[in-house]
Amino acid sequence: MPSQANFIAFELPGRADDAYQSLLSQGVIVRRLHSYDMADWLRVSIGSTEENSRFMAALAAYLEMRNDR
Measured between alpha carbons, how far is 63 from 59 in angstroms, rounded to an integer? Predict the structure, then answer.
């Protein structure tokens, strides 16, 4: 989805709520986009290099765990 903002929206079909909870439990706060009719999407603000790396590591951990199921 094209953007000119300080955030990225990304789609996780059928997984957005689960990913949201997983990221939150890892201390990474993202936003759900249900109110925009985008139930399968999450939004993350762009942060510092360290914050972005932490988000990417948390998302990778979630996706790896999810693939093991």
Answer: 6
CA distance 37 to 56: 25
What is the model's pTM? 0.84
Tokens of 27: 């201390």
| Selection from 14, 11, 15, 42 nearest residue 29 by Cα | 42
Q: What is the CATH number of the domain that holds 48?
A: 3.90.1150.10
Q: Which of 18, 24, 26, 29 has its CA nearest to residue 69? A: 18
Check if the beta carbon of residue 30 is closer than 8 Å to that of residue 20.
yes
Task: State both tokens at 68.
Answer: 């093991």
Q: What number is the average pLDDT over the span 20-46?
A: 96
